[in-house]
Amino acid sequence: MTGDVILGVNTLWMVYCVGRGVPIPMQNFNERQALDGLKNLDSQVIGAVYDRYFPEVYRYVRFRLGDEPTAEDIASDVFVRLLEAVQNRRGPQTNLKAWLLATASHAVVDHLRRVYRRATESLPEDLSDPDPAPAELFDEREQKRTVRQAYARLTSDQQHVLALRFSQGYSLEETASVMKKNVNAVKALQFRALAALQRNIEEMNDD
Amino acid sequence: MIDLLMDALEICLQKVEQGETVESVLSLFPDLESELRPVLQAALQARTLADQSVPAAAQRRGRARLLSGAAELRESQRGLSKRTVSFFPRMVLALSLTAVVVLSSTGLVGASSNSLPGDQLYPVKRTWERVQLAFVLNQQRQDALQSQFEQERLNEIDELLTTSRAQQVTFSGVVSKETDGRWLISGIPVLVTNTTHLLSAEISSSMPVTVTGTTGSNGVLEADEIESLQPGSMLPPLEPSHHAGATGQSQETTTTVAGTLPTQFPAMVQTPAATPKTPQSFTYTGVVQGEQGTNWTINGQSVSVDQVEVGGTIQVGQVVRFGGYYAGNGNFIITSIESDSQGSPSHANGGDNSNNGHNNNGGGDDKGGGHGRDDGGGGD
Description:
The complex is a heterodimer of chains A (207) and B (380).
Chain A (H helix, E strand, L loop, with lengths): L1 H18 L11 H9 L3 H23 L2 H20 L8 H22 L17 H18 L3 H12 L4 H8 L3 H24 L1
Helix pairs in contact in A: 1-3, 2-3, 3-4, 3-5, 3-7, 4-5, 6-9, 7-9, 8-9
Chain B lengths: L1 H16 L4 H5 L6 H15 L8 H32 L2 H23 L9 H13 L4 H24 L5 E12 L2 E4 L2 E4 L5 E2 L9 E8 L5 E8 L14 H4 L6 H7 L7 E3 L12 E11 L2 E4 L2 E4 L14 E8 L5 E8 L5 H4 L1 H11 L20
Parallel strand pairs in B: 3-6, 4-6, 10-12
Antiparallel strand pairs in B: 1-2, 1-5, 2-3, 5-6, 7-8, 8-9, 8-11, 9-10, 11-12
Helix pairs in contact in B: 1-3
């Protein structure tokens, strides 16, 4: 994982340097210079940052919401917010990935708040699946839906920690870095989140 | 206990990630199995929500949207800067800019006063000199100012030679010494070589000339071109003030240098400088080389004696001490003249005048101010 991060960061830096016609050795990369490129609205740097981090942000948001179109909107919006924040000197100073994922988490919460606030539309009467599936596949879908609903009942922090651990495969240390918590706090949060998730699933199955 | 449970959960998660079954990992913690099992099962359920695929189309669309947003930001920034300019009334902005220019110009002129040829601020210094000349309408004051500026040229060249800076320069002066291709022109050592263009048929001592050349690292200016000037042309009144010191001579020896020259050569000693408000007076000693009515020739320069009553009998070949000022046409107007009984230019004016002259040439800041009294015969 760490190797992948280093490789990705170096690729980003190479794109950054080549875009300026300055071949700078990869080991000289620092995120500060990439952030400078964002501040200058350098298209090459913006594209490189997006290509590097969009998959992670997208997967995170989709894990949280389970909705691909919304995940696409929110993930791309996170990068627009990044540009605006950097221009307004409110952007990340060091950990770009942590900033993106934290912003994605806030964006998800904002989205859910808007959804809950909106008047509930009447559901169509016919909810039958247009594409009938075999019984096994149907059960799998139902179980996934139950887990999704159980997950949606978790607190924001609990959803956040599970999304980081299970959608991104982050280690405890990486998760702690993104969440700006210590490892023990993340361990405890994760344990409580999984326990709550299990309880929710059982409750929904009982219903 | 709770810490142990969380650590055990982490170990179990890692082992399941590596492909082990739930039962096998739970068997590692038999005492914690009842607590671990539901949590581990929840973790497995949570994994089902994960999907590592990322639709390429979604990524492309997001990329295009982001770059479009960046373009809009760039545009908005340009627009903002334009609005910022138009926000202020134009008149206020113009006045502010004018004030800034004026204030910064004042500082610029001050900063340029010590600049040398080749420096970035040197053109500012020369331009400011021209501006000063343009605003002085009184001819005598203008002559005095012009003379000061000519003196400043000598000081600049002297500074260039002292600091061994190579720079092409042009200056005017009087040839005072000529030995084996090394000339001394108003105190500036000039090297005349075979490549030097002598634009006049004959250039000799005491002749006013304009020299174009390059300062070298050996403390000598290598002349590219030397041209004689008409007698009476505007010349600097003194040698460079720093030169004597730079060559190890004391200030008092400035006139001594001239004094070592043959008697008929000028000993150019400046009286206390005049402010630009009054014509600058000079006192020289020299040899009368010719008399035609009120136009005399002293030290190769044409001078006018129609404003002074010549005391005693002065004959051609006699050493005289005379004072006066330069007129606008370059003629030196004598306001006092007397026979120099000592016959030695080096003693004609004494060390006091030398010191005063040095102070006058100490730098651009001194020019035009600080010397409120004219010596030199009081003919003003």
